[in-house]
Every structure is written in structure tokens, then in C-alpha cells.
Amino acid sequence: QGAVLLVQEAKPECRGRWYLPAGRMEPGEGVVEGLRREVKEESGLEREPLTLLALEERGPAWIRFAFLARPAGGTLKTLEEADAESLQATWWSGDPRALPLRSPDILPVLELATRYRQSPPHPPTLPRPLPCAPLCLRLLLPFTNAAGDLWVLLGTAGTPHLPVVACGTSPPELRGGLCQPVLRLLRDCLPWDPQPGTLGLLGLQHRAGGAGGADGICFNVVLSPPPRSQG
């Protein structure tokens, strides 16, 4: 019906302001499980995720997932049920900029959700329950040669595989973006100086509580080399 679920914040630094349901994942918690828990705590509603809308990152130390989800039960939280998680929740069908927002960073996410509902640019994409020890990127780098043949960059150590690079393995990387280790890997693999463009995220892998307590995430990313680099 064109309305979006918003919650009124209870935190002292933004009390009374409005925001999308959001929060931090807990140790050993899956991405989707964290989504369901946070929405329930802050709005009183059960939610079922439909697709990943966006991935925001400020390096390996700060990653945020934005999902489009649908109602799946529960009761909307009222002011009488206010607690430390939120004051109340509401279905808002007007312009969210008319409200005192905690931050305008939710506006691009709302635009993405509107566009997806009108004309989905990609099929539903949810995390695959596969374990991963570190935070890493798996790279799909296709390109063509002069004859029009399609090539894909593969690692040849052992069984041929798509290149994988671990992120956040040093203090500088924890403060930098995820592209830094990608460029380092490609410069070791390719005879030219690569400056790849990101075509999109194919999907992500995460399963909390893997072997040995593994709780990493793998992002499967499609990259494109610039035209001058295609060999």
C-alpha cells in the first residue's frame, strides 16, 4: 500500500527521531536471523526478508546490509509498549523527509526499495548458508579478447577456482575500503595495472557458528576491467 515501517528511536542521542528498523548483529548470529530479531525488538512485527537491496561498507570493520522484507505477523509497537529498543513503530505512507529523521542515510535505501517493487532489477538475493572463516571477496572477472572470446580470471593453484582475497588482515585494511585487497590481488595476477569497475554483487555467503567458530562472510563480486586492459 505504499507505506514503509518506521520506528521512533529511544536512544538518548536520537530520542524521538524516526528511522528504519536497524541494529547490530550479535556474535554467532546469522544475517537473516539478526534482521528478524531487530525488527521484532524495535517494531513488534515479524518480518520475512525478500531480497538484499544494498550493501554499504567502510572497510571490513563496518558493513551494513539493507533488505526489503514483508510483514509476517506480530503487533505494531505502541507508545504504551515503549522500551530501550524503541518508543513506537508506525506505517508511514507520506514523504519521510517530513519527519524528524535520525539520519537521511535511509532515503537512498527507500528509493531502492521503491524501484525494486516497481521493476525488480535483479532476482531475489538472500545470503547463502555457507561457512566462511574470514571476511573475503570472491572475484568474477570476465573479459573478451580481440576475437570476441570470453575469458574469466581463475586461480590455478590446486583445482582451478575463482580468485578469493581475504580482507582486514592488517590494521590499515581495517580502516580502508574493501577494494584495497582486491587491487593488490589483481596486480599480482595481471600483466597490466588493473583499475576494475564493480558491476555488482552476485550474492553473499554467511553461516554463523561454522567449523571452529568460523563467522566470516564471503561476497561474490562481478568486476569489469577497463577497455584498454582487455587482452
Automatic annotation (TrEMBL):
UniProt keyword list: Hydrolase
Record-annotated Nudix hydrolase domain positions: 1-114
Tagged with keyword Hydrolase: yes
Keyword Lyase: no
InterPro entries: NUDIX_hydrolase-like_dom_sf, NUDIX_hydrolase_CS, NUDIX_hydrolase_dom
A GO MF label: 8-oxo-dGDP phosphatase activity
The name this protein goes by in its record: NUD18 phosphatase
Naturally occurring in which organism (per UniProt): Scytalopus superciliaris
